[in-house]
Amino acid sequence: SIGGIGKGHLVREIDALNGAMGEVADASGIHFRMLNRRKGPAVRGPRAQMDRDYYKDNMQRLLLNREENGMENLEILEASAEDLLLDEGVGIETLAPLADPSDVSEAFAEEGNGAERVRLEKAKALSSAKANQSNRQARIRGVVAIDTNTKERIEIESKAVVLTTGTFLRGVLMIGHDRYSGGRHLRDSEEVEPPSVGLALTLERFGFPLGRLKTGTPARLDGRTIDWDSCNIQPSERPALPFSHVRQSRGEEPPLAAVGRLIDCYQTSTNEATHKMVMDYAHLLPQYDGMDGKGNGPRYCPSIYKKVERFAERSSHNSFLEPEGLNTDIVYPNGMSGPYPEEIQLKIFRSMKGLGNVEIVRPGYDVEYDFVNPQVLTHTLETKKIAGLYLAGQICGTTGYEEAGAQGIIAGANAGRAAGAASRDESPPVPFVLGRDEAYIGVLIDDLVTKGTSEPYRMFTSRAEYRISLRADNADLRLTRKGAEHGLVTDPERLAALDMRETMIGQNIDRLRNFKLFVTDWAKRGGNDLMGGAAANRPGRESHKKSAEEVLGMPNVSLKMVEQIMADVIQEEGSGQVDNDESTEEMIMTPSSVYDTVEASVKYKSYVIRQEKDIESWRKAQGARIPPGIIYDHSIMP
């Protein structure tokens, strides 16, 4: 699956910056839902189930057809990265230095409210450039690789390298008490992809703080052996909302949704018998390297053993049965990872509703791997120890495709821009950094590089202080122009779609602002609840008017409700049934491409204004330096 609560925001932001994930997810999606729909727009998360074969094929097609997709400078080599080529030395300068916060603070005060001020404050509380330089021990020169086809050792020279090792950094696979080296199992095969050991040893030699994390994947089930009628159906939403802003601007559904090729997922659950087996066979689980043998796995996506152990009072846990594609019978039991021996996994599954006769196609397993404490990175994701070396993904301690993609686009943008400028003998480019006030990507990276992580990091909406402004529906409005300024967004259609969306949002909000009715008329047409209950009929209210914008800002009122009343009034005016002194035109409902943004912009208006003041205060504080002689003592700072 792609997306979810918090994660869906990341996918939309990646798409707004011209990343491929959203478009490929739309092209491959077979089940779409908006999570948290009953809650406010800020915490809603788009999620889609992929056809795994389609997703792989569509992504590879996009990369291989690079010229027609605007990636003519991309070259792809299938090889195993074994080690780094380095020029070693102390005090090496980076190709794209970050501004020193003290310099930024002074410039901030001088620049006033100009556009340059906005650019300068992006350096905010980043680590001192001089301190980083004194800490560097080498500069990247390239990568040592083994060609997959010829098995020859090759050296690829480069001024910048991005490491995205996933679970391969000294990876160990585990089923029961069986342990064997590998980063993951090949799909539809017993073979494993080998781990990366040389890279880990090099990072260790340069003093990078390494730790061990684990993740797990559940067994794959044979859908032909599942009693689907005993499970609760979870249909896809229609119409399906796309991740791609360009597709949204066209008013299109994802392609498989448009032709009716969506699937249903199903819900089953564990029970007390399941939980008894989970605990009875706990002694057969692997012994890990991390956390005294317990393993350091994702807190918010735990194994079935961790769920039962942690929530002993619960009699059941849900599991969603997700078909892996349109042309396969393989089913992914979401929420049921647990690397027991295969025969124990089968017993556990067969204790669950609808799975009494299920067969396992491939057993689940865990993988434990090295990660680097991300506090050794700057906000560009360049390492402080090796100039030109950038890290992204699970090597930084995160979990999930979405978090990895979000880091990848920032690391890739900064590495590419720095290397390109150096190759052309140009001055260093302005680093591409997103702040906590601009994007969930900014929250993710700021959390990682300032706080580090001791467990796999997962994105949630609760991690963002300014989530009212950082919604999934307005990611393009927040980020696409900045992406264009830094050379990431060059597609004319994407920029035109942004212009069109901005215009349509403004026009629709203006229409709501200009349409007014007496309070009593709003109440008569929409019911007293629309106008705050019986207070709508208080004496004197009959002469008081409210705009459609004001009415939409009230609780339990939707844009659809307001526009329906507007349409009725306009229709009656046309037939002479209503005398309204407000000028009106033919009613056109807000199109789906801007509906969510228009509704959220109006409903959150007062909160956004207040939050913008908080953001401005926070931005000013980012350039301040803490005096070096300050004494941290309760008597001074209680």
Main features:
21 helices; globular; alpha+beta; 638 residues; 4-stranded mixed beta sheet
Care to describe what's here?
The chain is of the alpha+beta class. Helices cover 35% and strands 17% of the residues. The strands form seven sheets. Strands 14-15-16-17-13-18 form a six-stranded antiparallel beta sheet, with helices on one face. Helix 2 (21-28) crosses helix 3 (52-64) and helix 16 packs across helix 20 (592-603). The chain is globular, with a radius of gyration of 27 Å. Mean pLDDT is 89; it is low at 100-119 and 121-127.
Q: Mean pLDDT across all residues, rounded? A: 89
What class would the helix/strand composition place it in? Answer: alpha+beta
Q: Helix count, per DSSP?
A: 21
**Number of E-state strands:** 23
Question: How would you write the strand order of the largest sheet?
Answer: 14-15-16-17-13-18
Structural shape: globular
Oligomer: single chain
Q: Approximately how much helix is present in the residues?
A: 25-40%
**Computed Rg:** 27 Å
How would you characterize the largest beta sheet? Answer: 6 strands, antiparallel
Strand content: 15-25%
Q: State the end-to-end distance.
A: 47 Å
Q: State the low-pLDDT regions, or none.
A: 100-119, 121-127
